[in-house]
Every structure is written in C-alpha cells, then in structure tokens.
Design goal:
- By secondary structure, the protein is mostly helical.
- The protein has 2 domains: 2-49, no CATH class; 51-175, no CATH class.
- The protein has 6 helices and 4 strands.
- The strands form 2 sheets. The chain has a two-stranded antiparallel sheet with strand order 1-4.
- Helix 3 runs antiparallel to helix 4 and helix 4 (108-114) crosses helix 5.
- The longest helix is centred in the middle third of the chain and has 24 residues, at 51-74.
- The radius of gyration is 28 Å and the shape is elongated.
C-alpha cells in the first residue's frame, strides 16, 4: 500500500530522494539522488503493507502448522470430544484424530473404521485447501479459482447431519468410532 509523506525541513537539513538507478561504465551500483523541496509529497511503500509479506507468512506458517499437527498426532496426541463427554453421543468429528493417525501410518481401512466422514469429506476439502494455498502463495502459477455451486455445501452439511444422526442410532454401530 502506498503512503503519502509530507516533507518538512528543520534548519539547514536537506533530505535526499533516490531516483531510478543509472549505470555508468565504472560501477554497476551507482545511484543518483535529488533534493526534495520542502512541502513536497513523497510516495513510499511500506513493507508491512505488501501482499508479498502476507503470502510469505502464509507460505511458511501454514505448512509449519500442518507439520506440527502431524508430528503431535504421530506422537500419540489425542483429541478430547467435549460433546461426547457432556452428552455421551458421538459428534461427526469423533474418531477423526484416530483416523488422521491411521492415515499418517498408511492404514486407510482403519481410518475408515474410525470416522468414515473424515475420509469422504476430508479428502476433497483437504485437496481444495491445498489448491487455494497454492493459488494464494504462488500467484505466478495462474491456477484457476475453483468455484463450487451452493448445492455442494448443502450436500456436505446434509451428509454431516445424516452421519451424526446415524452413528448414534442402534443398529449403526459400525459408524461409531
């Protein structure tokens, strides 16, 4: 983001503003400066306002977060479900931590037995998140934006609601973690 800065001089001090670099035969690093008259406006570019800084932070912190979560899960970190502790009923996410650990070890059927919804909805959602991460952090790749129709969100919410209901009904113990 560009900022306008008003130049003010105190006493005999003068401020210099760099011009475009001009190369001469002697040095490839020569720069020329010109004096800025008092009262002129300078346009500056703040590093914190740069979209590149945000892309760099997301580009570094998002994978770091994923690595730390995977490392925590592989060391036996478990997730406590407050809904189950309070009600005794399984929420749609119950067993997803164990399913993630099983997936990290390459045991797909075991992950499916812990939480089938985690694989059915988590896989496309995870791929979509990776796609959007690549689009944001690496805009030079020119990846197309994936626009999903509204019915896909409604379908996903419907699947979550049906899964939540069925895994708590007698006769559907296979869906319980």
């Amino acid at each position: 983001m560009k900022r306008e800065v008003k130049v003010s001089l105190r006493g005999d001090h003068t401020r210099l503003r760099p011009q475009k670099p001009q190369l001469d035969a002697k040095s490839s690093h020569s720069r020329r400066f010109q004096f800025i008259p008092e009262g002129d406006t300078i346009t500056t570019l703040s590093a914190l306002d740069s979209p590149h800084l945000l892309r760099a932070l997301v580009g570094i912190l998002a994978p770091l977060f994923v690595v730390l979560i995977c490392r925590w899960l592989l060391r036996g970190g478990g997730l406590l479900c407050w809904f189950y502790e309070l009600t005794g009923l399984y929420c749609p996410g119950c067993g997803s931590g164990r399913a993630a650990i099983a997936l990290l070890h390459g045991h797909i059927l075991e992950a499916l037995s812990h939480n089938a919804l985690f694989l059915l909805l988590g896989t496309p959602c995870g791929l979509l998140l990776i796609w959007e991460y690549l689009r944001f952090v690496f805009p030079g790749l020119e990846l197309k934006k994936i626009e999903l129709p509204v019915w896909t969100a409604r379908l996903a919410l419907g699947m979550v609601a049906v899964f939540w209901l069925l895994r708590n009904l007698p006769g559907f113990e296979i869906l319980a973690p």
